[in-house]
């Protein structure tokens, strides 16, 4: 288990509202409690999500408005003061111009001078938007001279991530902010209702608490085996 | 959204016929289909804001429903539709939800471009 290091500014870049809650809301809540400024650049509004409620309470056209509100609520719960919605469209991130994507990230880095960036690990993050986001961040950070680079931590969840990357080197104990993580997941209720039902049943049955609520796992980007083209 | 009433939807389809309209059409298995089920072959597509003018359209089946719109030079076809709504902007929104409630198909028709 790691002791969470003090940071100057944390920049989080993910493509979908709820990526932050699922992956790193506990870690971010701890930074927020320590008064570390956090910027979350969320690239899309998850417009193409398949969860519209059962029976459906949202439509394809109202979903982005629903998810925008959920994102704002989650940011508030976690303690993210600087939430930016970057206006891309769900499912299309990988088709944007690569150089435009690098510039989007570079502009944020130059403006904010973060000591730590958190994104998805390219190659190990399953969804094409996750992969494209991670690639853009790696390309942008790679252009910064090594001695000036912010730290780059990545979440990953492909089936082969541990086989290829090894055990994550950053394992944060988030039990002290468990309630905040649950609240962040609940904020994204249109997308997390199914998962939360399972979690609550599990807690009600006194099963061991899901690992999702006790630790968060991240990998420092392995620059010595950088596979992004 | 409410479960499709075929007669009602047919009326709406008729109202959009013969006019320039914008279409959103989509089918999807979800981006995680092959992650959760490794043998699964995932396929899908979407087109947003295609501008077309269909001469007529029909809803068919007994639910889930199929819709076909006959174009000057071709067709728009979607199957697996279960729900509909005429929204507050006068757009006809149709979607198909699987047994788990998740969206699997959509067809939307509007007089103005979608956001």
TrEMBL record, chain B:
Record SUPFAM superfamilies: Hypothetical protein YojF
UniProt-listed Gene3D superfamilies: Hypothetical protein YojF
Highest rank taxon of the organism: Bacteria
InterPro entries assigned to the protein according to its UniProt record, in alphabetical order: DUF1806, YojF_sf
Pfam families: DUF1806
Protein name (record): DUF1806 domain-containing protein
């Amino acid at each position: 288990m790691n002791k969470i290091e003090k940071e100057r500014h944390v920049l989080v870049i993910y493509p979908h509202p709820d990526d932050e809650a699922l992956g790193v809301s506990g870690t971010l809540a701890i930074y927020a409690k320590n008064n570390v400024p956090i910027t979350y650049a969320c690239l899309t509004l998850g417009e193409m999500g398949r969860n519209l409620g059962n029976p459906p309470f949202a439509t394809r056209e109202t979903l982005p408005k629903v998810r925008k509100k959920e994102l704002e609520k989650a940011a508030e719960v976690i303690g993210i003061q600087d939430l930016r919605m970057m206006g891309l469209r769900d499912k299309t991130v990988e088709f944007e111009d690569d150089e435009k994507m690098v510039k989007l990230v570079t502009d944020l880095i130059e403006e904010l001078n973060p000591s730590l960036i958190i994104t998805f690990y390219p190659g190990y993050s399953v969804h094409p938007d996750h992969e494209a986001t991670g690639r853009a961040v790696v390309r942008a950070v790679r252009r910064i001279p090594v001695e000036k680079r912010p730290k780059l931590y990545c979440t990953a969840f492909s089936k082969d991530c541990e086989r290829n990357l090894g055990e994550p080197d950053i394992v944060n104990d988030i039990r002290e902010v468990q309630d905040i993580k649950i609240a962040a997941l609940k904020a994204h209720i249109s997308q997390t209702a199914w998962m939360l039902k399972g979690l609550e049943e599990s807690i009600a049955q006194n099963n061991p608490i899901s690992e999702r609520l006790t630790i968060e796992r991240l990998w420092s980007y392995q620059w010595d085996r950088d596979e992004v083209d | 959204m409410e479960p499709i009433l075929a007669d009602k939807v047919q009326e709406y389809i008729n109202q959009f016929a013969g006019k320039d309209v914008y279409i959103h059409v989509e089918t999807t298995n979800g981006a995680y289909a092959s992650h959760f089920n490794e043998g699964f072959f995932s396929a899908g597509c979407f087109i947003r804001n295609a501008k077309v003018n269909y001469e007529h359209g029909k809803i068919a089946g007994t639910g889930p429903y199929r819709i076909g719109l006959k174009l000057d030079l071709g067709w728009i076809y979607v199957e697996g539709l279960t729900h509909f709504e005429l929204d507050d902007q006068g757009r006809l929104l149709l979607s198909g939800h699987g047994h788990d409630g998740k969206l699997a198909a959509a067809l939307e028709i509007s007089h103005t471009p979608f956001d």
